[in-house]
TrEMBL record:
Protein name per UniProt: AMP-dependent synthetase/ligase domain-containing protein
Keyword Ligase (UniProt): yes
Species assigned in the record: Brassica napus
A Pfam family of this chain: AMP-binding
Annotated PANTHER family: ACYL-ACTIVATING ENZYME (PTHR43859), ACYL-ACTIVATING ENZYME 4-RELATED (PTHR43859:SF53)
Domain AMP-dependent synthetase/ligase, chain residue ranges per copy: 20-286
UniProt KW keywords: Ligase
Family: Belongs to the ATP-dependent AMP-binding enzyme family.
InterPro entries membership: AMP-bd_C_sf (IPR045851), AMP-binding_CS (IPR020845), AMP-dep_synth/lig_dom (IPR000873)
Length: 368
């Protein structure tokens, strides 16, 4: 029986990074990432991640195993690729919320001892201001993310080491990615402000990320090759681990820079999205709901939040806003649960019976 005990020939550390390698083999020609005019396959994504990882660990950048590399950006292909590429180099990945102010950002960069930051071009001035607050010997190097096709080339006087594609071009696609020596090795560092506004860092091991990813796959019953629309920010707990889960099932990741109702509905229709449940579908499964429509309500912190307008089958006042929200909480991710539920006897419609969402959007804007 001693021969059955764990040893290198029969046991390897749990890590989600192997999902990308498998995706390149099993789903190689299937689409992995779609964004604007960008279309990539799983084989291409695997190659690009290896090239980034190789450059990170090369003498030119010199990121050592266990050092922190931060990423500041929205849901774009480069940010998705970095969820794999950074830990594949042996470094620890730290996604940072781009909505933070420069002071808060500088605190996180200093506390994490970040050595390199990948920065989306829309956040470049914010990051430059944050870095200016740090002592000279603690300033991380910066790499610019330029996922939009209309971006101009990086000028020589900008305080960035290189562009993401420049780092990519120097990389080696035959690079042997750094496998963890133990599944308890740290892989991800995430920060939260919590309830006290004092930043708190949480370190996740390869094992913790692996288990979280498996839970995410089971929770949503994701089949092979779903079409996943990224409305959940990747910087929120690594998109609740769906950044790695989508590789496990060979999903098509639809990346959108800005989350707004028009873009979401256009993407769902154009790409035949199968996964984020739409909130309205969930509301219609409630036996008390007659009609439902969900629109975006402006929000100072999040930009927009879901607002549900509902008409009920029975108008006796027995159903409360809280009950509708609790019903949604049991079936949807927390961020998709409507912040507001407005009851109406009848939802506004056109002469052909279509719900007039533009009217509801105007109503949502006037809500407190």
């Amino acid at each position: 029986m001693e021969l059955l005990l764990p040893h290198p020939s029969n046991s390897s550390p749990l890590t989600v990074l192997g999902y990308l390698e498998r995706a390149a083999s099993v789903y190689g020609d299937s689409p992995s990432l779609l964004h604007a005019t960008t279309v990539r396959t799983w084989s291409e994504t695997h190659s690009r991640c290896l090239r980034i990882a190789s450059t990170l660990s090369s003498p030119s950048l010199g990121i050592n195993r266990g050092q922190v590399v931060s990423v500041i950006g929205p849901n774009v292909p480069s940010v998705y690729e970095l969820q794999f590429a950074v830990p594949m180099s042996g470094a620890i990945l730290n996604n940072i919320n781009p909505r933070l102010d420069a002071n808060a950002l500088s605190v996180l960069l200093r506390h994490s001892e970040t050595k390199l930051v990948f920065v989306d071009h829309h956040s470049s001035s914010l990051v430059l201001e944050a870095v200016s607050f740090l002592p000279k010997n603690e300033k991380p190097r910066l790499v610019l993310l330029q996922d939009d096709v209309d971006m101009t080339p990086l000028s020589s006087d900008v305080e960035f080491l290189d562009t993401y594609e420049g780092v990519m071009e120097r990389g080696d696609e035959t690079f042997k990615w750094v496998r963890p020596s133990s599944e308890w090795n740290p892989m991800v560092l995430n920060y939260t402000s919590g309830t006290t506004s004092s930043p708190k860092g949480v370190v996740l091991s390869h094992r913790a990320v692996f288990m979280s990813t498996i839970n995410s796959l089971l929770d949503w019953s994701m089949p092979n090759r779903p079409v996943y629309l990224w409305t959940l920010p990747m910087f929120h707990a690594n998109g609740w681990s769906y950044t790695w889960a989508t590789a496990a099932v060979g999903a098509t990741n639809i990346c959108i820079r800005r989350v707004d109702a028009k873009t979401i509905y256009e993407s769902i229709d154009k790409h035949h999205v199968t996964h984020i449940k739409e909130v309205e579908t969930v509301l219609y499964t409630n036996p008390v709901v007659k009609e439902a429509a969900v629109v975006a309500k402006p929000d100072k912190m999040w930009g927009e939040t879901p607002c549900a307008f509902v008409s009920l089958k029975c108008l006796d006042g027995s159903v409360s806003e809280r009950e509708i929200r609790e019903f949604c909480k049991a079936k949807l991710p927390k961020y998709m649960v409507p912040r507001n539920v407005v009851f109406q006897e009848e939802l506004p419609k056109t002469s052909t019976g279509k719900i007039q969402k533009f009217v509801l959007r105007q109503m949502a804007k006037s809500l407190p």
